[in-house]
Amino acid sequence: MTAPIDPRAPRPDRLDIARDWLPRYTGMPIDGFGDHILLTNFRSYLHAFADRFGCDIQGEERPMQAATNTNGLSMINFGIGSANAATVMDLLSARNPKAVLFLGKCGGLKHSTEIGHFVLPIAAIRGDGTSDDYFPPEVPALPSFKVHKFVSDKIVARGYEYRTGVVFTTNRRMWEHDQRFLDRLHAASALAIDMETATIFIVGHYNQIARGALLMVSDVPNTPEGVKTEASDLKVTSEFAGLHLELGIEAMSEISDKGEMIKHFTY
Description:
Layout: H1 14-26, E1 36-40, H2 43-53, E2 65-68, E3 73-77, H3 82-91, E4 99-108, E5 118-127, H4 145-157, E6 162-170, H5 179-188, E7 192-194, H6 197-206, E8 211-219, H7 230-258
Helix pairs in contact: 3-6, 4-7
């Protein structure tokens, strides 16, 4: 006969769980991760990273895959959506990286955000739901300014432009047909929409991990002809993904080389 559950029994330590689960989810031991982490939800980005540096990809059979180059820069493909974004940021508390940068795609919601443009979000609207498990709704989802400064410098040095503004993060993937949701986006005055940024910012804040996001506009979903298709996504990836990845690598590598402190406050 099963013993009854004692609600007063001590709970497992949160960090102990993360230390067990980070290798479990990625196939990489904790000490295999570097101090600086690139996050993506595209397998092609991770394979391009591994090919560039000649490093092995761990966890091909796991929910997430990871690779680390010889300079201690790691990349993780964590999948799609706010739940996965929260999971990877929680698991990274076991490694306590110095900085994390998310390389993701977003839908442009303004005339000033065209396909191929880069977006450095100054904040993210928490329409994801997942972040509510970490902080009350009034807590803003913000990046770490110094991470974005390094990214901004790299974009400008290459002669490209970028947009800043607020990104709306939702946990809902299919909404392009829903006029009420489109009206909500218009009222929110968001520059772009995605499924992970607010979650990464909030869970990074919760775990005291410096974080940022460099997003690439891959579609303009508030117009019928701008809704993403497989063909349009392949075209965007072939034209712009290489530069997107290069900018992320350069920015995080410079943070590492300079050894600059990114996180200043303890909450």
